[in-house]
Amino acid sequence: MNAQTDCPVAVIGAGYMAREHIRAFQDVPRVKIAGIFSRTRARADVLAAEFRIPMVCDSVDELYEKTRADLVVVTVPELAANTVSQACFQYPWTCLLEKPAGYNFSDAQEIEVAARARNSRAYVALNRRFYSSTQQVLADLKNIAAPRFLHVQDQEDPKRALQAGQPQAVVDNWMYANSIHLVDYFTLLGRGRITAVEPIIPWDPRAPWIVAAKIQFDSGDVGLYQGIWNGPGPWSVSVNTAVKRWEMRPVEQAAYQLAGQRTMEVVQINPWDQQFKPGMRLMAEKAVAASQGAGTDLPTLGEALQSMKLVKEIFGI
Fold first, then answer.
1. pLDDT per position as a tens digit, 196-232
2. Residue 189 and residue 317: Cα distance in Å, rounded?
3. Is 123 exposed, middle or buried (0-12, 13-18, 19+ CB in 10 A)?
4. Phi then psi for 181, rounded to 5 degrees?
C-alpha cells in the first residue's frame, strides 16, 4: 500500500465485533470499507448507513466480486465460522478471522486444513496480543533471558452465556469460545515447544468449578493455568523472572515490579486502547500491512490452532 492507493476491506457479519472492527479499520490511513455481507441483511444495512459503506452484498461470492477487497474480516458466530471461512478461502484476499476460528478443536483443525489446501493467507484476530499492555510486556521480556513463570487466571460463567442467547453447542465448548483469550497468552509468552500439560485439578464437565494445569516448555519456562467457573474471579496474566515481574490485571493494564521492590509501577495505556476496543486499532493496521505483502506478527491459523490444542490438553475435551 502506498500513499496513492486505498486498501479496500470487506466485512462479513454485522454484530458487535463487526462494528468494532469497522471503527478500527476506518481509522487506518488509506483504508476504505468497500462492502459488507451479513446473513441478516437488515443489520448490514444499518452498519452500512452508519459507516457509509457503499456496498451491501448477499453472499461471500458477491462481496468479493463487487469489492475486489484486499482484506476480508470475518465476524460471524462460532457455529458459522467453518462454512463462511471456507467460502472466503476460495478467493485471493487476505482473511482476518474473528476468534475463535472454530467452536472446538476439531472444527478449528478443519478450518486450518482448508486454508492450507487453498494457500490462503489467513490470520486470527486474537486482539489481546495487541493490547498496549501485552505489547509492553513482550518488548521488555526480549531483554530478559532468565526463565519465565507464567500464571494465567481465568474466570468463566457459561450459565450467563446461555442466558445471553449463546447456542448450547458453543456453551458446551465455552473454553474454546472464551478461555482461548487467556490460554493464548501461554503460546505468546512461553518460549519454545510445550512438552507437557499436567492437570492439577482436572476439568469436571458434570460439576464445572475449578480447573488447574501446569504447562512445561522445552525452554525451561513453566506455566500455571487456573480457571474458576461459575464463581467470582479475575482475568489476569503475570510473568515472573528472577529480576522482574510483570502483571496485567486487568489484562488491559500492565504493571511491573523489580527484584527488591514491593511496589508495582503502572505503565501508561496507549490512547488507541481507550479510543477503540483494546488491541483492535493496532491489529487493524497490522492486518492492512499483511494484506499488502508486509511481514507480520499476526497469528496465523496454524499458530492459533496451537492455542486451541492447549485448551484441549488443559480441559481434556
1. 999 999 999 999 999 999 999 999 999 999 999 999 9
2. 24
3. buried
4. -55, -40
- Cβ(214)–Cβ(194) under 8 Å? no
How many Å apart are CA 58 and CA 41, to the nearest integer? 7
Q: Give dist(CA 139, CA 132) in Å, integer.
A: 10
Report the alpha-carbon distance of residue 11 to residue 244 in Å, rounded. 42
Print burial letters for 195-221: b (CB count within 10 Å at least 16), e (below 16): eebeeeeebeeeebebbbbebbbeeeb
On the question of pLDDT at 5 being above 70, the answer is: no
**Burial (Cβ within 10 Å: 0-12, 13-18, ≥19) of residue 141:** middle
Give yes or no for residue 31 having a pLDDT over 50.
yes
Type of residue at 188: L
Q: Which pLDDT does position 4 carry in this prediction?
A: 41
pLDDT tens across 141-198, in order? 999 999 999 999 999 999 999 999 999 999 999 999 999 999 999 999 999 999 999 9
Q: Can you tell me the distance from the alpha carbon of 167 to that of 303, in angstroms, rounded to the nearest whole number?
A: 26
As beta bridge partners, residue 210 has: 228
Cell representation of residue 151: 500464571
List residues bridging with 65 in a β-sheet. Answer: none
Q: Classify the phi-psi angles of 230: left when phi > 0, otherwise alpha if psi is within -120 to 50, otherwise beta.
A: left
Would the pTM count as exceeding 0.90?
yes
